[in-house]
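User: I'm preparing a small set of examples for a lab meeting where we compare how different chains pack in three dimensions. I only have the primary sequence for this one, and I'd like the structure in token form so I can line it up with the others. Please keep the answer compact; I'll paste it straight into my notes.
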Amino acid sequence: MPELHWIIFSYKIPAEPSSVRVRVWRNLKTLGVHYIQQSVCIFPYRDELMKKLKKLELLIAENGGETTFLKIEKLSAQSEPLILSEFNKERMIEYTEFIQEANKFLDEIENESKKANFSFSEIEENEVELRRLKKWLLLIKSRDYFLCELQDMSVALFEECNIAFERFTNHVYKHEGILEE
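Assistant: Understood. Below is the structure token output for the 181-residue chain.
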């Protein structure tokens, strides 16, 4: 693995309006940073992350706040494994929740198939859910900087969802006489 460089980002935002504070927090969580303490987070140095943080820095400044960026060439031998572990724990929680939802999707497809509920409305409903799962998985992967052990399982499970949906769709088309047996 190439040597990691880190950024520590700290910020101060006036208490009011609280919507700015919440917006900053949400944006940072979406980027997958790890909070070391309140208003202080760390993340691996990536150009695309820095561009997004520069925009966030502007938002904070426009609302009377302050920011500080510290580029860290190397963490201590004790700190780096702990920080990596924290990043992966956070992704593990996200992947676990994704896996639960993907399994619910597979259960739904199986239940509708057992009931022979082969309708276009079921296709539409399940297609919406499959798109939601795809978007969610891509978002988790985008902030999975250190390849959490559940990433491969999540990707394989999503592929299983795709296959199940395609199979279900074919059953609907056959049921409606659009596809021949």
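A couple of notes for your slides: Strands lie at 6-12, 34-37, 40-44, 66-72. The CA atoms of residues 109 and 130 lie 11 Å apart.

User: Perfect, thanks.
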